[in-house]
TrEMBL record:
Lineage: Bacteria, Bacillati, Bacillota, Bacilli, Bacillales
Presence of keyword Magnesium: no
GO MF: D-serine ammonia-lyase activity
Entry keyword set: Lyase
CDD domains: PLPDE_III_LS_D-TA_like
Organism: Bacillus mesophilus
Family from the record: Belongs to the DSD1 family.
SMART domains on file: D-ser_dehydrat
Protein name per Swiss-Prot or TrEMBL: D-TA family PLP-dependent enzyme
GO biological process: D-serine catabolic process
Length: 368
């Protein structure tokens, strides 16, 4: 077997034991509180990892884009939520093709105009499309306001012959800007209540809501525990990363994804690695996160801060000279695992320092 330290660099590494542990933790939590799991695969974009999640009890998957849904469908996955508003004719026709193949696909809606556009295209078919209302729980991105506004949209859905209301969901992405665990807990509870309150408004009006779904890795345990929630959709929890560590959601030991990099130069005031923005990305958190320092955590070398990246170079600074030389290799925990995974064609899967497999990043680059 090949040892990890003998691989060429930069290489995307995935610790098998850790990823299995992370999948198991989500599944165990869901079983304990009695909710379903529909993990967001935009983190890993891998059919193999999605299959592991389904084998652990997930009822289906969540995707961000139709391109991801198409890849997962080709891989044999039948139950898919596209957690993104769909309105353009091109995209609606792609959804129709998935329905014709027997895929149980659902799409997000948050505006009346989307309903009309979806129904206009679908009325030329005999197909029915399941839609889920996305409510805004504080991120202020997409999403109808919870409560009466969600009910108004639900009533409009009920009037569309070829649309079926299947659920209400939200994503508390603003939890990534939380200043403390206490803040995360509050955001999570509010996230769950935004969905439950919206569902209650609908059911008081005689509109049943079968699925009440929450997401966000930092908050899924708090939001999932809100009475009335039926499903959780964590994505990053399959890997974890430096942002999750900074938020206090997990520990360094639970981070399954790392980037293997080599030292290309050691200088008086800096050290340079062969990984830059084209592999580690420049992400420090999309929603205001300020808990990370630098552009990744170098395992075993806390004295180094990866201060800046160019395209192919990672430049680290240090308070004391590190015990590293040219061609030494290190593993770097990325700030944001989702964006880094999308930069590579495959995961090199390892266990106890030995390479055991290679898994494709099947939906890499599927952003349409």
């Amino acid at each position: 077997m090949i040892k990890v330290q003998d691989l060429d660099t930069p290489t995307l590494l995935l610790d098998y034991k850790k990823v299995i542990q992370n999948i198991s933790e989500v599944s165990s939590f869901a079983n304990e509180i009695g909710v379903a799991v529909r993990p967001h695969i935009k983190t890993h974009k891998s059919i193999k990892i999605a299959e592991l999640q389904l084998n652990a009890g997930a009822v289906g998957i969540t995707v961000a884009k139709i391109g991801e849904a198409e890849v997962m469908a080709e891989g044999g996955i039948k139950d898919i939520l596209v957690a993104y508003p769909i309105a353009s004719p091109q995209k609606i026709n792609r959804i129709i093709q998935l329905l014709k193949k027997g895929i149980r696909v659902k799409v997000a809606v948050d505006q009346e105009v989307q309903l009309q556009l979806l129904n206009d295209v679908l009325q030329h078919t005999s197909l029915e499309l399941e839609v889920w209302i996305k409510v805004n729980s504080g991120l202020n991105r997409c999403g109808v306001e919870p409560g009466p506004h969600a009910l108004k949209l639900a009533e409009k859905i009920m009037m569309k012959k070829q649309l079926k209301l299947g659920g209400i969901f939200t994503h508390a992405g603003h939890s990534y800007a939380a200043k403390s665990i206490e803040d995360i807990h509050k955001i999570g509870v509010d996230e769950g209540k935004a969905v439950v309150d919206s569902a209650s408004e609908c059911e008081k009006a005689g509109i049943p809501i079968a699925v009440r779904s929450v997401g966000s890795t930092p908050t899924y345990k708090q939001a999932g525990a809100v009475k009335g929630i039926t499903e959780i959709r964590p994505g990053n929890a399959v890997f974890f990363d430096a942002i999750q560590v900074g938020l206090g959601v997990t520990t360094l030991e639970r981070c399954a994804l790392t980037l293997l990099a080599s030292v290309v130069g050691v200088y008086q005031d800096r050290i340079v690695f062969d990984t830059g923005s084209k592999s580690l990305c420049l992400d420090k958190g999309a929603h205001g996160n300020e808990t990370v320092k630098g552009y990744g955590l170098i395992q075993g070398h806390e004295e180094i801060t990866l201060e800046r990246l160019s395209e192919e170079h990672g430049v680290g600074v240090f308070l004391q000279s590190p015990k590293l030389q040219v061609n030494d290799v290190v593993q770097i925990i990325p700030n944001h695992a989702c964006t880094v995974a999308n930069m590579f064609n495959e995961y090199v899967v390892h266990e106890d320092g030995l390479v055991i497999d290679h898994w494709k990043v099947d939906a890499r680059g599927r952003v349409k």
